[in-house]
UniProtKB/TrEMBL annotation:
One of its GO terms (cellular component) is plasma membrane. One of its GO terms (molecular function) is oxidoreductase activity, acting on paired donors, with incorporation or reduction of molecular oxygen. The chain crosses the membrane at residues 61-82, 102-122, 166-184. Keywords: 2Fe-2S, Cell membrane, Disulfide bond, Electron transport, Iron, Iron-sulfur, Membrane, Metal-binding, Oxidoreductase, Respiratory chain, Transmembrane, Transmembrane helix, Transport. InterPro entries: QcrA_N (IPR045603), Rieske_2Fe-2S (IPR017941), Rieske_2Fe-2S_sf (IPR036922), Rieske_Fe-S_prot (IPR014349). Iron-sulfur subunit of the cytochrome bc1 complex, an essential component of the respiratory electron transport chain required for ATP synthesis. The bc1 complex catalyzes the oxidation of menaquinol and the reduction of cytochrome c in the respiratory chain. The bc1 complex operates through a Q-cycle mechanism that couples electron transfer to generation of the proton gradient that drives ATP synthesis. Its main location: membrane. It is a multi-pass membrane protein. Belongs to the Rieske iron-sulfur protein family. The lineage of its organism: Bacteria, Bacillati, Actinomycetota, Actinomycetes, Micrococcales. It holds the Pfam family Rieske. This is Cytochrome bc1 complex Rieske iron-sulfur subunit. Residues 1-37 are annotated as: Disordered. The keyword Electron transport applies.
Length: 356
């Protein structure tokens, strides 16, 4: 194809042949190399050449770190001083928890000011001159390695920490205080310890076992071997704190062949093979709702803690630390299943105040 679109005899375009020949003739067959342009000339900042500008930048960075300190202090004060039940109207949101709003805003200000101060510090005072480091495929000489270590150790001097003590102290204060909210969240962010809140439930002696959510009583004859009932105590819907009480009082009711029950206490606290256990997993409180009829295992779907119903709901797998508490039951004169006593131990997860 010629320069107007025809081919040469060997199938290549005449344009390509001419360009290739010119390339070879001009360079002797070696591609022309570009000269390394190098790094652009370094442009000095005002803080590099004017100590007055440098001190001004130092004060600006210190101010940002100080604002971070103030934000952290506001977080700490609000954590203890603001009632967690106080509500406030937020435009575009509606009612919100005042403590959560103040904690969120103050923590955001604290973190943002640390970042803004670090960026401003880097932009105005830290060295910004570009350098080229030649990389070697082999191990560097000992002198070079020692020089690299010295360079790293001298980073604090290059960042002017020694010359700028105001930045050093405010940065230390900002970062040091910023750890306090994290400690508070770990130590008390989950709220107060349960005390006896999990040791007492709505269950009382003589209360009927009611189907959940139907709210109908259960006769012993209704419970067949292999069946499972989700149960709540009679009258719980009339309690002042319904959801809280339901969360603690949830029970699973099952019937086993009495000969399959291996623990005397479990057999005595049940009725003719019918047993009732707390539905709240003793790991972190998830609802235990999966019953394997053939193995008589209860499974928590959250973290796979597995309880053996034939062994008083002993933990046989998973992270749960103790068996599910058993509710002692009996039957009344009409044959309905009723609680023979409240739970004898705290339901739900283990906690520091819980006795052995």
């Amino acid at each position: 194809m010629n320069e107007h679109g025809t081919e040469a005899p060997d199938g290549t375009s005449t344009e390509a042949v001419r360009l290739d020949q010119g390339h070879i003739e001009g360079t002797g067959g070696i591609p022309e190399r570009f000269t390394n342009p190098g790094l652009p000339a370094h442009i000095h900042r005002s803080a590099d050449v004017d100590e007055k500008a440098a001190r001004k930048a130092e004060k600006q960075v210190a101010t940002l770190f100080t604002l971070s300190i103030i934000g952290t202090l506001v977080f700490i004060v609000a954590y203890f001083a603001i009632d967690h039940r106080t509500q406030v109207f937020m435009p575009g949101i509606g009612l919100a928890n005042l403590q959560n709003v103040v904690l969120g805003v103050s923590l955001a200000v604290s973190l943002f000011m640390i970042g803004a101060g670090a960026v401003h510090w880097a932009k105005t005072l830290m060295p910004d001159e570009e350098v080229v480091e030649e990389r070697h495929t082999l191990r560097s000489q000992d002198e070079d390695r020692t020089a690299a270590v010295d360079t790293i150790l001298g980073g604090g001097d290059q960042a002017q920490l020694g010359r700028r003590p105001l930045i050093k102290y405010t940065l230390g204060g900002a970062l040091g205080l910023f750890a306090v909210p994290l400690v508070l969240q770990v130590a008390g962010g989950l709220g107060p310890l349960p005390g006896d809140a999990l040791s007492t439930t709505f269950w009382r002696k003589g209360m009927k076992l009611m189907r959940d959510p139907e709210g109908t009583p259960i006769k012993a004859t209704d419970v067949t071997i292999g069946s499972v009932f989700h149960v709540m105590p009679e009258g719980i819907d009339k309690s002042e704190h319904v959801l809280e009480e339901k969360g603690k009082a949830a029970v699973l009711l099952m019937r086993l062949d009495p000969d399959d029950i291996k623990v005397a206490k479990e057999r005595d606290w049940g009725h003719d093979g019918i047993v009732a256990y707390s539905k709240i997993c003793t790991h972190v409180g998830c609802p235990v709702g999966l019953y394997e009829q053939q193995t008589h295992h209860l499974l928590c779907p959250c973290h796979q803690s597995t309880f053996d119903v034939t062994q008083d709901c002993k933990v046989i797998f998973g992270p749960a630390g103790r068996p599910l508490p058993q509710l002692k039951i009996t039957v009344d004169n009409e044959g309905y299943l009723v609680a023979d006593s409240p739970f004898r131990e705290a339901v739900g997860p283990s906690f520091w105040e819980r006795g052995s």
